[in-house]
Amino acid sequence: MLYNRERAYRSTTMAPNGVITTPHYLASQAGMQVLQEGGNAIEAAIAAASTIAVVYPHMNSIGGDNFWLIYNASKHELRGLNSSGRSGENATINFYKQKNLTSIPARGYLSANTVPGAVAGWEKAYEYAVNYMDSTFSWDKLLGSAIHYAKEGFPVTPSQEYWTNVNLDEKDQQFRYLQQFSEFEKVYLKNSGMSYKTGEIMKQEDLALTLEGIAHEGSKLFYKGTLSERIIEDLQKCGGILTQRDFEAHQSNWVDPISVDYRGYTAYNLPPNTQGMASLSILNILNNYNLSTIQEGSFEYYHLLIEATKQAFSDRDKWLTDPEFSNIPVNELLSKEHGIKLADNINFEKTFETEKQLDPKGDTVWFGVVDKDGNAVSFIQSIYHDFGSGIIPKGTGVLLQNRGSFFSLDPNHVNCLQPNKRTFHTLNPAMLFKGNDPYLVYGTMGGEGQPQTQAALVTRIIDYNFNVQSAIEAPRWLYGRTWGASSNSLKLENRISKHVVEGLIKKGHTIEIMEDFTDVMGHAGAILIDPESQVKHSGADPRGDGAAIGY
User: Fold this and answer.
1) Does the pTM of the predicted model rise above 0.85?
2) DSSP bridge pairs for 80
3) What backbone phi and psi angles, to 5 degrees, belong to 316?
4) pLDDT tens-digit map of 328-385
5) 216 CB-near residues (< 8 Å, 6+ apart)
6) Residue 29 near residue 546 (C-beta atoms within 8 A)
7) Please, what's the b/e burial string for 466-477 (b: 16 or more CB within 10 A of its CB; e: otherwise)?
8) Which residues are CB-neighbours of 164 under 8 A, at least 6 positions away?
9) Largest CA distance in the chain
10) Are the C-beta atoms of 448 and 359 separated by less than 8 Å?
11) Which residue(s) pair with 255 in the sheet?
12) How many CB atoms lie within 10 A of CB 314?
């Protein structure tokens, strides 16, 4: 039985003015309060981003990175903001090789080798809002909700309880038991050493003090003040490699979004070092197929999108790194001619096998905001793996990301480690324009799954006329491996029919059936803006703990 596009477990949220969707309801409420009090999309995004960094700590923190797509309605301008951090000045392949390492550890002090960009990203976007969007909120007020929940506490979600327990029981040696890190145990575990249970109140007093300092002093406290000094002191005491100069040198950069045509719409994403080029490449390939002849939810549908993903990932893995260290032919890779070439590689009779083991990790938050004036934000923030590096410099409450563990120690690899370099980033927020205006603001968490889920959302909404919530809830897939596996598999939610599964097996796919609404598939979200009525249609993913709210 195919999925009923008219049926959803939740209703699509519709609102005439502003709308926000995030994977945590408290973050959605924080952003909505700003919108209802007259704030713009960027201000609401900062309130939501800072709040979710507190209340969803296993997925993101102020010790991570973020990326933005920002649409300014009055200027009819779309801008991208890359606030990912660079590796430290002492981060070299030789440094790790001297420690007899063949890869960068996924946890611990040696994994925290890139400067966190999140706070700088908030401030950079805020400065843009002040200069070009008539901001009315003060910086410190936007952090008020985050400070409140850090100080007074918040109820732990089922997702946080689950992923905390996963990390306490981690068997893979490269993912060391996180309770061995004293500050992690102090902050995220109870006195008994057990995880917080769903519904129990968790407080983060050190993080509250840190956020209060940032509210009063801005990002300079994080990068050039006493906070950065405390972070560096702890890192260097325990064998870490970041320096004060690394923090002081951090810059968040405005970038030009990249785009492809998709059936008369324009799909936008961020350029390298993000994998936005892969997300767009999938759509560029699909342009060469008439999806009206392929039933949504059929095994032909899944096969086509999976095979298009493999073709896009082949280009991505060959080229993607920091563009300041390599000349990446993005325009050529996203050209119509190249899309045709990749489409011709797809065989409907069998599957294409990829040798590279795809990284399934990527614990991230995506959210979208559209305000009453039509300004829009597509935003993503991450610490890479669940709980990142596991390292919280003493007394700061700042959980540091392990994004730099994605660098390769092979000097011939396109994404090899070098000082002051941005690594290949899975994060890529998206928008789809109809004419000159945003039509769909969308994205998801999920590492390798982000381009795959973005393709699912776009095809289901544009090609098959799903409403927003139904497109988010519809059964999903993820091509990639799970930890400990030696090869990639195609993971399918259990709601996909046996007939479809059998068809995919016959085409050569190695199938792994997952439970319904598993968050392995990521927490997706989307906002559709009706061009005529300007009513915003928004949805949140039941695989997460979020909410779409409008007014």
Assistant:
1) yes
2) 69, 255
3) -55, -50
4) 999 999 999 999 999 999 998 888 776 665 555 556 899 999 999 999 999 999 999 8
5) 140
6) no
7) bbbbbbbbbbbb
8) 58, 188, 189, 195, 196, 387
9) 63
10) yes
11) 80
12) 17
Rounded Cα distance, 250 and 229, in Å: 15
Q: Tell me whether residue 329 is exposed, middle or buried, using C-beta atoms within 10 angstroms of its C-beta: 0 to 12, 13 to 18, 19 or more.
A: exposed
Count the helices and strands in the chain (H runs, E runs): 19, 19
Q: What is the 3-state secondary structure (H, E, C) of 465-512?
A: CCCHHHHHHCCCEEEECCCCCCCCEEEEECCCCHHHHHHHHHCCCCEE
**Type of residue found at 130:** V
Look-up of token digits 């993101």? 60
- Report the Cα 287 to chain-centroid distance in Å: 25
The CB density around residue 186, as the number of other CB atoms within 10 Å, is 14
What pLDDT, on the 0 to 100 scale, is given for residue 446? 79
Q: Are 265 and 249 in contact (CB under 8 A)?
A: no
- The amino acid sitting at 69 is L
CB 129 within 8 A of CB 43: yes
CB 204 within 8 A of CB 147: no
What residues act catalytically? 364
Residues 91, 241 contacting (CB under 8 angstroms):
yes
Backbone torsions φ then ψ of 421, nearest 5 degrees: -125, 140
Crossing angle of helices 144-152 and 41-55, rounded to 10°: 10
How far is Cα 37 from Cα 205, in angstroms, rounded to an integer? Answer: 28
pLDDT of residue 355: 60
Which domains can be identified in the chain, with CATH numbers? 36-60+84-251+389-406 (no CATH), 259-361+427-550 (1.10.246.130)
Q: From the first residue on, what is the mean pLDDT of each consecutive set of 10 residues in the chain (551 residues)?
A: 64 96 97 98 98 95 97 97 98 97 94 98 98 95 98 95 82 61 91 90 97 98 96 96 97 98 98 97 98 94 95 94 96 98 92 65 84 98 93 96 95 97 94 97 89 96 96 93 60 93 92 90 95 96 94 97
Is there a contact between 379 and 46 (Cβ–Cβ < 8 Å)?
no
Q: In what order do the strands lie in the sheet with 547-550?
A: 253-255, 77-83, 65-72, 376-382, 364-370, 19-22, 547-550
Q: Name residues whose C-beta falls within 8 Å of residue 445's C-beta, 6 or more positions apart in sequence.
A: 23, 59, 362, 363, 364, 365, 366, 380, 382, 522, 523, 524, 544
